[in-house]
Input
Amino acid sequence: MSSSAEYIEEYKRVILPSTISENEDKVLCKGDGVWVWDEDGKKYFDAASQVSMVNIGHNHPKLISWTRKYYAKAAREKIITSSINTDCYARSFLTVDGERMEISPPGLQRRLAQHTFGPENTICFPDVTGALGANDALRYFRTVTGRPYWLTFEKAFHGRHGEARDSSDSNPIHWNEAERDHHAYRLPYPETKEGLKACLEKLKSLNLKVFSYLLYEPVQGEGGGMRVGRYIKEVEDFLKTEGVYSISDEIQAGMGRCGEWFGYQALGLNPDAIVLGKSLGVIVPVSCFVLKKGINDLYNFPHGKISGTFPGYNAGMAAANFVMRIYEEEKIVENARNLSPEFGKMLKNAIEPYDILNLHNMRLPSLKVDGIGLYRSIKFYDKNGIPDPKMRDLVNLKLRELGVWTYPASKSFPAIRFTPPLVSTQADLKFLTDAIYQATRILYQS
Amino acid sequence: MSSSAEYIEEYKRVILPSTISENEDKVLCKGDGVWVWDEDGKKYFDAASQVSMVNIGHNHPKLISWTRKYYAKAAREKIITSSINTDCYARSFLTVDGERMEISPPGLQRRLAQHTFGPENTICFPDVTGALGANDALRYFRTVTGRPYWLTFEKAFHGRHGEARDSSDSNPIHWNEAERDHHAYRLPYPETKEGLKACLEKLKSLNLKVFSYLLYEPVQGEGGGMRVGRYIKEVEDFLKTEGVYSISDEIQAGMGRCGEWFGYQALGLNPDAIVLGKSLGVIVPVSCFVLKKGINDLYNFPHGKISGTFPGYNAGMAAANFVMRIYEEEKIVENARNLSPEFGKMLKNAIEPYDILNLHNMRLPSLKVDGIGLYRSIKFYDKNGIPDPKMRDLVNLKLRELGVWTYPASKSFPAIRFTPPLVSTQADLKFLTDAIYQATRILYQS
Output
């Protein structure tokens, strides 16, 4: 048995199953920029960016170098590195490449404020995982409004714990479907005009005074396979007239993924708060609830309502501050913006013979490109136009062979997500889309 | 305004309030072993170990050195450092001080198994925060038993998110008391024989077939101010005959805090699973759900039920593996075990004139030492024997002056917790208890 096979065998014996595919037979050991390697030495383009957690690429030289400087300073000057920041104040400073960085929650707020609600209007609460950040946001709005119910969308995914889980429309993550919290009310996702109509009709049938907020993904990544919420703006505007706030879940869609800093900006939305995660920390878990000031007086929100052991922890603040600075210095968002339209076209060209628009009436398998920015998917339909996960799995397997690392969107959902690192070049995206062209050829044979 | 005062002013303006005291006026900037420093250069003995997250002390030389080696190897060989491990397998190796360490979830399992249920009988699921680890455990047992209800104790604290929050008996963490999940049923904590009797009576009045497990803290840290569950064993034994499992929350009580590796061992308990957090990661958030094998067939537990973005993330596995090795090499638990009885005596001597046993009938303020191991508290009662938070706050303030860093247990609870780092020496504990002696003198004057 190979060393990787032995490892996987041991892993399955001693670690409870999570979401790693039961058929997975590779073990990754190396990552450099847009590339990852398995233990057999095979190299792959990371077309998943590990589901948007590695937007700046693997082992970004600055992130690793500054992290090394951080721990070198800890060894030398004993700056505080333990995971404290909710029972006491703690901060440190690190001068790298000519800038004296303040490693602290306000240090992070200063950077985030520039790209969200502005320096004077941005309140933050850094937490650890995206779900926890979402919970903080949801608890904030429920507390300050006193309204117990909230709105989410069908096929939403916001995380696996607490209110974020209750907001998600995904069966496996509930211990038992009957046990859901029924304060989350699900609306049709306004991807199309018809969706918008259905959504507004539902809303008009409700007593909206009991709802505190709408939680949305600008683009539905996990559950929707990159459905774009093109008409969320109309829903948001309608709800504002009823005193219902809105929160944009930017855990996957944010941090440049949609071609702007945040998904809500790419779609021209107007949320009262956003939630960040994933690519904010890259090497360690960091999330952030970012709130527009003036929504409610900050001091109405009681002490102790949101907290925890690790919110604002030092190594997390270091990583997030470093990542934000890398975004700024390396113009990560600009690169994503520049590549976005081209990437859409390249994907469409790669699947051209299967394009759903061309072939839908010809009774051949058909494929459809969805999403925006570098946040895309290809969806697979059989010759009757029925979603076909088998086609998806075949193509996914072939992509692996061709050196492209991807994940199917979910067990049943007929999509492969393509979320290349935002530091990709046009040549990288050509490598990827050439592979997609080749991989989809196998559908002729099946 | 001093730089610290400016920082705190900015913090309050831009960061939502968590559990930092509204009166806190110090900013920590340096930590070395058992000591921390504020920005004015004042040095404190960390008698809180930042609420048991820094059991091995601040900036432990091996932890910082090995972490530096980890990132140096990342720079050199591009070992994978991004936060992946739930959608694919990833591991790395690092040779430090003659040992080739496997940085991976099974690598952590191997170390934890030695000290819990044994190499052949230990299943793990690493997660990020203690609350998330508890949620994983709770979801596991609810899923495999199919029983919707569970048991917890009055004054319990298990975390602030999801089922862990529902298990906690703490008002401020619920957005609204009326909105609690009522599947968690609260029992009297069996601290005393009377408590045990009350607990068993409650249990006998219930249909236990609907309960999946009992979740307990061996010692109630947060809510109970170090109440010791001396009779949990009897409750656990009784429940086992009814098919109700038990889970020990070792987030604070574990990792040597009670003088043994885990609190359940210090009290001779027999849980089916434990949950770790806090001191398992020290510099980054890492938790772990540790399950006794054979409880249920592992493969009955479906894929996708527990997962997330960060469980098993690489930097977390590095930190937890390093920490476990430091515990082993430096005999951290043995040191805690050796210091434990002496620490209890020293605390009792320090408050002797106020000892509740001596003075209760004399109508003077009285103090009581609670807890076990290096997991202790002093509780404050006025001359009528009524819990007195004001006395507590006076003593806490005086301790700060004397160079001791502590936190009150909660706004209303009349205790100060003393959880010195497990790397303390007898001299350190003498410094601490001398300060306590001095600080409690002020009660004469009030």
